[in-house]
Amino acid sequence: MELIDGNRISAEIIEELKTDVAAMDGAKPCVAFIRVGEDPASVSYVRKKEKVAREIGIESRLTVLPETVSQDELFALIDGFNQDPFVSGILIQSPLPSHLDELAAFRKVLPEKDVDGFHTVNLGLLCQEDDAGFVACTPAGIMELLRRSKVDLAGKHVVVLGRSLIVGKPVALLALQKKDWANATVTVCHSRTNNLAEITRQADVLIAAIGKAGFVSGDMVKDGAVVIDVGINRIPDPSRKSGYRLTGDVQFEAVSAKASKLTPVPGGVGPMTVAMLMRNTVKAFRRQHF
Ligand code: GUN
Question: What b/e sequence results for 123-156 when a residue is b if at least 16 CB atoms lie within 10 Å of its CB, and e otherwise?
């Protein structure tokens, strides 16, 4: 079994982006982060995104809103960034507290600043296979991992576990595209799917994005399959300084014995999501200024 090293591959992309930004003669892309409340995972993800932006030479602006913020106040902030010519891209860290309408917030971001790719227009462009739009960062990162690991999807059966807006749906659309790096046959499974293991065992490429620690067992995976573990689950672990450890949606040991290639957690898909956000920010900047 070969590990797909997301840290190494994302570092390559970050280097490419550094070169791109350095060639912009001092003009700097800028991404605005909006975080609501103090969800520990969101705090850590946004911090990581700020750090990578800094490394590349992308400016970032973080606004932290209180847990109790109203929909109108959130909308007013988004509107301000929409109208600010200095801001190239806007990211609203998900999940938002339950009293806020997350989808409405995603739709409030101007499509040309929607570096998360969650706006109706960008999802529509993805569906139409029009590269002018922005593709959601985790799905784009998964495709880039597969491409750079020389996994050919053409004619293969890709099984996606999970139908979320953030991962499942867009990654299924990407794998399905009529492009030389895609052309897969795609099945999307979810919590109501019957005979799940029977379907996952048919997968040449299995993409697990359900958010349940250790959901995918060895007997759900075909010998030689490529397995992409999108889960980042926090498990309490008193032996760690942080008090928790990260684990994926896949039972790593058991699936290692079956898979030909597997992404680790951490160090697989996670760093790719951040790299793709940076790529989208550079793309947004270019489209606004050149
Ligand atoms: N929460 C988990 N993944 C993501 C992502 O890709 N973008 C945003 N905005 N929030 C997330």
Answer: bebbeeeeeebbbbbbbbbbbbbbebbebebeeb
